[in-house]
Structure prediction request, 639 residues.
Amino acid sequence: MSDTATEAPPYALPDDTSLPYGRGELTGIFPPSRVRARLAGWEPFPKITDRAGWQAVPARVRNQTLARAEEALQAPWPELRASVFADFYRNGDRSRFELPHFERRKLLRDLVLGACLTDDQRFIDPIMDAVWSICEESFWGVAAHSFSRRHDQLPLPATDEPVIDLFAAETGAQLAWTRYLLGERLADAGGVAFDERVVAEIDRRLLTPFLERDDWHWLAKERTGANNWTPWVCSNLLVATLHTESDTDRRAVIVSKIIASLDVYVDQLLLDGGCSEGQSYWAVGPAKLIDCLDALYGASNGELNGFDVPKVAATSRYPVAMHVGGRRMIQHADGHGVWLLEGSVLHRAGRLLDDQQARDLAVQLRDAPGGRHERAKTNLWRGLSELFEPGFVDAPPTAAPLIKERWFGDLQVLVAREQEGSTDGFLLCMKAGNNAEHHNHNDVGGVSVAVDGHHLVIDPGVGVYSKKTFSPQRYELWEMNSDWHCLPIINGVVQSAGEQFAASSAEVDHDGNSVTMTAELAAAWPPEAGIHSYRRSATLDRDNHRIVVSDRWQGEGVTSLVLPLTLAVPPILDSDRISFDPGGRRVELAIDRAAEIAVEEKPQDDPNLRELWGERIWRLLITPAEPVSEGSLTLTFRL
Prediction:
């Protein structure tokens, strides 16, 4: 018998919790040894050869999808120029490169779905051209994410150092889905070398760098820094791994490392289901976590089930609460005041988490006018879900739940409406929190008001991303600051960014049919504001059909104070009366202890904000009566 030590397997699967595995609840459910034993094939959607599966797609969505596929056949293939990639380095512009980058992925998605629905050979060569062209790209990501360990910043990507960003991972998943769906049809058209090229590019750009490096910020190895990047990247790495990695040991190691990273993301989720990044980013944060768990569940024949983890189970509650009416949503952080993405995203979360309200809202969003944002049309997984999500595609029209009230105590956000199941009357939202939340806006204490399902008092959202958006100059952008979130300018200064700039004593109380949120906000301003206390309460008085926002402050150093109120519709000033008409019904506003009221109109030249709000938004600028060092303002909205 040889006394030579047994050589370790090439891809070890440690259960030792001192290693990067075994971090939290998910790894407790899915330890590496169990992942290795349970992972099997994953075929969540019919392949092109399953004609019965594709012919069963309902006519409504089939026809819509085929119309986009026919358009894709005629569309020119977008050019990606090096000089345009360099825009971000030179002048901070992201859009000129990103628009054709995403258009390529959109065309590929539409062509693949067209091929699968028809089994028409006309689609195969254009798909082969698209895949080959994408394989030829120097970088699958976008310029804003072109990181390098060797260089602080480069005009063009370092092609010898593959970077896994959101869209490199998403591109790899897009190619993996294409290969899974079309299989031999595509391999026959391009040959064995073509298929091998696709697999090799996914491995070179994604899987090998993921295995070899532990310093990806979204990996959150040090148990900090997890945000929407973590599940967004990981969900696409899972698709790429499960559909292209043939080495079962290596596949299990990649999946176990993904699970370890997801544990950090789950750890920072809130037990109440709140999403600090706002409802727009819910679809690419918590919903991407659901993608990951769905893939693990499917690839293990139901053996790897993480849906009962409490923080996971609560995630579908947030978008349901943020719904105003139609496609309109209450918005916080870097997002949009309407639902942009596919309704199937929310339906799948509701199905997997057994949340009927989420499923009902998803069906209502499916049928709501307004269509989908172009960015939402690039993702092939989500496109497939639009066609095959159980109980969604062919569900009869359903009313949105329009819940009466929800208090997210961990997030410190209250949403309350006058009537359960109806947009009639007022909806009130107030948030507290802090000014270091993900995709943060300085908005501690901000309020939003809707009437009959229409926005009135608003959080404006975010403009088109540029280099400045995620830089030390972020708060030079007007929409990031508290004076556009219905919070006062004190001694000429607005709230500051940072975790220490936070609310305290946030609480919710009920009095009969009224609900009130109260919070102390003074710490959200820097010292030069001179404020010792700034206490805001916001009340929805259902019996009297009114909202009352009451601010009280005290600060010996306060010499000036102006309270702005950001509006989606123009105020109507008639003598001493103020009113609005947000949706066909007049709303009256009474302001107690105001010395001066001015109106400011802000034209919207940003494409994102103009799409959302129209050509302009407005602000009321309310100056209180003297003395300003200690005072109050009360705003009463009535129908």
Q: What stands out?
A: Residues 151 and 588 are 57 Å apart (CA to CA).
